[in-house]
Amino acid sequence: MNLFRLAIKNVLRSRQRSAVTVSAMAFAGAIMIFYASLLEGWYVAMKQNAIGLEMGEMQVHAKGYRDDPDLYKLVTDEKRLVGVLRKKGLLAAPRLIGGGLAAAGSNSAGVMIRGIDLELEQQVTLLHRHVWHGQWLAGDDPAGVVIGRKLAKSLAVKVGDELVLVGQAADGSMANDLYRVRGILKSIGAATDSGGLIMSGAAFRQFMSLENGVHELVVKRISPALELTPLAQELRGRLDTLEVHTWQELQPVLARLFEMSNISLVIMLLITYAAVGILTLNAMLMSVFERIPEFGVMKALGVSGLNLFTLIVIETLILTTFAVTLSLVVGVPLSYHFSRVPLDFSWLLESSTTIAGIAFEPQWYCHLNSSSVILPTLFMYLVALIAIFYPAAKAALIRPVQAIHHH
Amino acid sequence: MRIHTMACRSLRRNLRRSLITAFSIGFGVFLAVTFTASGDYSYTNMIETSAVMGLGHVTLQPVGYNDSPSLSMELAEAEMFHRELTAIPGVEAARARIAGQAMFGAGAKSVGGAFMAIDPDQETPAYNLLTRSITQGALFDSDDERGVLVGERMAKKLKLRLGKKLIITVTDKNGEIASELTRVRGIFRTGEHSVDSSLVLLPLTMVRKLLRYGSDSATYVSVYLEDHRQATEMVNYLRTRWGQKDVEILPWQKTQGELAGLVAVDRLFNYLLQLLVGLVIAAGIMNTMLMSVLERKRELGIMMAIGMRPGQVVGLVLAESFWLAVVGLGIGVLITAPWFYYMAVYGIDFTSLMSDEYSAGGVVVEPVMKFRLYRESAAAIIGVVFTLTIAAGIYPAIRAGRIPPVDSIKEI
Q: Which residues from B are below 8 Å from A364, CB to CB?
């Protein structure tokens, strides 16, 4: 007997019931795919804002710089170093860092001044894309600086306003110069928001009278497939006058936070899975239990218990396959759409803000990856098969006469 | 006709199916309570923490101060407002404070930061996070005009200890530089880095003289309410009361806009995720109801043949949905109650996992998951459960109403 053909016939015969079961499961599956990609998108955005915005995946400093930052603790051969890292599959951007006092009108505030390489910085971090008002730095405007958003508020400056910067230069003299606010950044992180001032590397060198060397190299992998920790280990061996830190070492609290949110995302997923599981279970139980009299007739006609069991399993697989296909057809384009066009909550916020020091953007993108499609699919098959096991076994073992009168 | 008796009977006839469906509703209630209650708790907590960091639930301040704060603005009648506010029902406390930017110097080092000037006779730890968080020393008393409290991180930066000198430099109300020598009486630690590294508490009387303010002036008066949800109402009341005076009255949503936005976004995220789970559950209910209608075609046909009108059949199926929602809600309450009780009283403490303070929108969030359910949130959950369940029953009910009596009896 051709069980597969029989199964298809059964599915088609009770068309209404099949359609109801399939559409309920497909709806749940589509929502599950959407939900999984929303959660994944949240996680990816958080990680990108924490690491890709400013910190980079790895940082290189002169020995001792991190414990006690000082204008004179320099990485001297940064050009060669950028080349060396490049060969390892890493992009690097040099930064100059110093402290100073910014004043505008009668307000003043302490600032952390950063001089960056306009070209290389863009390859490594996304700072240039996070300008809130005004524009990002430009090579032909050395007096234009970009500042953090809280700093702009405490200095009461807007784009185009002038500010005076005072600091101690590398040669011991008093550095003092006039700059113009070219841009105000969105939330980047707690420290940069309240005291970050960014200018071009050349402008920094002039202000601080510093000719050579840099204070920091921010590093990013070209391909995310590259393993970060062994690479850092290897670099540490080669560059013994320097300090190499991965982002997990730079921000252990953050690394911890990511582990925790990963756990909570898994919990959230399990919750939807449970809801989908109950739905699938009920749908499948109904579609098998109600047909026990029908199965009794088949047994009376001589179908063996094993064949009957197999038949029910095949029917379930056919229904689930329909449901899964439909859920993919609906869920994947839906998630894809929201991975281009985010859910936008910016109307609720006056400006961007930070959570745990990480910039928080009110745009929520979906992130569709293989696990947000494969896991829900496998899960639906699994639950469906578990759900029908008991009623199918019952149908296979029951005596025909009892089954016919079963209700 | 007793439509509800009939509805309950048909639910009971297929007990397993009804129970699984009701259980899925109960599960939904459990989730909705878990997510909403942990949200309600943490939002309340953040709003309260933010309020005791200075600005209160409602703030009375000079007109225009909120947009561009400056020490040149003073609220001349602050003490009058303060006195009258305490007599208004719904107001728990009010505090007159001066706040602004200053330079702090000790030895050869100096840093920029902010200060908050308070009256030590008025302030109590309940309405001031900083005096509540003192780790060394104590709050200066009212006859100590030179006492200050500094944050732990600033103390470290300036190498300050109790009894050490700290020089405050500000621009006074006329824009002139003014300085005062003070002594550290205490050190506080809130956990929020920006506060601990840049804030200093000063005595109100000293700062009034330093800034050349009047003896009744302050920068703002913070008002603490019994319930932060009454802020807008209170603002409206105070505006009618003091409408002709030169004062701006704002709720915390305006003075602490960053936090308000964060709470609003987080709440929306939370509801969106709940809604998605709710839709899955509703699809399950619809599936059950539709199946039960389809397999009862014959039964419903007979009922219509003996005189039941289509409208009554629709009503019957909707009544089934309704009772499913009632049972589901009951199951939900049963499984949620112990969990809710535990979480409301004890909660789960993540401190050991966090190792460091966690802040959002500039406010320290304690790493404890606890529950608190606003009455309106509980009402919303119940409303949504009924709406979704009955909405899920509408299509099956309409299908049932359209069953042709004679034909369906002929069907096997």
A: 269
- Enumerate the residues of chain B whose CB falls inside 8 A of the CB of residue A281: 20
Pairwise CB contact (< 8 Å): A286 & B175? no
Query: B25, B290, B388, B394: which is closest to A287 by C-alpha?
Result: B290
Q: Do B359 and A20 touch (CB under 8 A)?
A: no
Distances from the Cα of A119 to the Cα of A84, A93, A138, angstroms: 18, 8, 10
Q: Nearest Cβ partner of B265 from A27, A31, A345? A: A345
Tokens 């993540």 belong to B350
**Is A279 in Cβ contact with B284 (below 8 Å)?**
yes
Quick one: closest CA in A to B359, which residue? A356
Do β-strands A353-355 and A358-360 pair in parallel, antiparallel, or remain unpaired? antiparallel
Which of A:31-50 have CB within 8 Å of B?
31-32, 34-35, 38
Q: Looking at this predicted complex, what is its ipTM?
A: 0.72
B356 — pLDDT class (breaks 50, 70, 90): low
* CA–CA distance, B364 with B354 (Å, rounded to integer): 13
The pLDDT score that the predictor gives to residue B380 is: 92
- In B219-362, the DSSP E strands lie at 220-225, 248-251, 348-349, 358-360
The answer to whether the CB atoms of B284 and A154 lie below 8 A apart is: no
pLDDT one-digit tens code per residue, B2-19 = 888 988 888 898 888 888
Q: Is the pLDDT of residue A258 over 80?
A: no
CB B170 within 8 A of CB B98: no
**CB-based contact A29:A164 (threshold 8 Å):** no
Q: What pLDDT, in 10s, does the model give residues A92-109? A: 999 999 888 888 877 777
Does the pTM exceed 0.90?
Answer: no
For the stretch A159-164, contacts whose Cβ atoms lie closer than 8 Å and that sit 24 or more positions apart, written own/partner, are A159/A133, A159/A134, A159/A183, A159/A184, A160/A134, A161/A104, A162/A104, A163/A102, A163/A103, A163/A104, A164/A102, A164/A103, A164/A104
pLDDT (0 to 100) of residue B338: 93
Decide if A190 touches B, using CB distance below 8 A: yes
From B353, B375, B379, select the one nearest B366 (Cα to Cα). B353
Q: Where are the alpha helices (DSSP H) in A48-135?
A: 78-87, 118-124
Closest CA to A206 of A170, A181, A230: A170
CB contact under 8 A, A279 and B287: yes
B282: distance to nearest CA of chain A, Å?
Answer: 9
Structure tokens at A134: 């005004």
Shortest distance between the Cα of A273 and any Cα of chain B, in A, equals 9
